[in-house]
Design brief:
The protein is mostly helical and about 220 residues long. About 75% of the residues lie in helices and about 0% in strands. The chain has 10 helices and no strands. The longest helix is centred in the N-terminal third of the chain and has 24 residues. About 20% of the residues are buried.
Length: about 220
């Protein structure tokens, strides 16, 4: 009983510390609305917990939005990729600028969520940030790679979850997709390195899709 009470006390103190930090920051109205909608999807029965989780998410969304807006011109137009010499695109410059935000912004989100939610619920929130890209991409991989092993799936999933975690730092879907593209490239290279040419498998997959559409018509 003593251990249970101490655990509850520590959780209460940690939650209070996080909430005091959050209350010192103002949240954007649009971010609060988005956070509210996401928390409703968790179907939390504890109203107080739902409000605290909403505050954590809204604060994070506001922080990354503010960083994005304040650093929009951080990388000037005309800057080049030092590896290729090619001019950076607007999206490249945006991703670079947003990637420079302090790691404490994401950590505050994770700390706040982990205090209130189960690990599965935390994953649900991260999926909401990234519109379910982990499950969607894994489903496509399984269709593209017919002989996928449990080892393959574990490797792909690890990379996709890493992409999801990194992607919560970014404000819009173009940036989020760009982050996932980094890890999708790693996954594709993994198959080629293991003797299964990705381009060949993907080409066969595209042909199958076209054949299905043609048969439906």
């Amino acid at each position: 009983m003593m251990r249970i009470n101490m655990k509850r006390i520590l959780l209460t103190l940690l939650t209070a510390a996080i909430m005091l930090s959050l209350q010192a920051q103002t949240t954007d109205e649009a971010c609060w609305t988005k956070a509210t909608g996401w928390v409703e999807k968790l179907q939390l029965t504890d109203k107080g917990k739902a409000e605290r989780v909403t505050q954590v998410i809204a604060t994070h969304l506001t922080a990354i939005t503010n960083w994005h807006n304040e650093h929009a011109d951080m990388i000037p137009d005309g800057a080049i990729n030092p590896l290729t010499g090619k001019k950076l695109s607007a999206l490249d410059r945006q991703v670079i600028a947003d990637s420079s935000q302090p790691s404490s912004i994401r950590q505050a989100l994770l700390d706040g969520l982990n205090v209130e939610l189960t690990s599965r619920q935390v994953e649900q929130v991260l999926d909401l940030y990234t519109v379910g890209k982990v499950a969607f991409t894994m489903k496509a991989y399984k269709e593209i790679v017919p002989d996928m092993t449990a080892e393959d799936e574990a490797f792909l999933m690890q990379n996709l979850k890493e992409a999801r975690l990194m992607a919560v730092d970014y404000k819009n879907m173009k940036e989020i997709s760009a982050i996932f593209e980094i890890f999708k490239t790693k996954n594709e290279q993994y198959f080629t390195n293991s003797g299964r040419d990705w381009r060949t498998m993907y080409s066969a997959y595209v042909k199958q899709l076209k054949a299905r559409k043609a048969s439906k018509k």
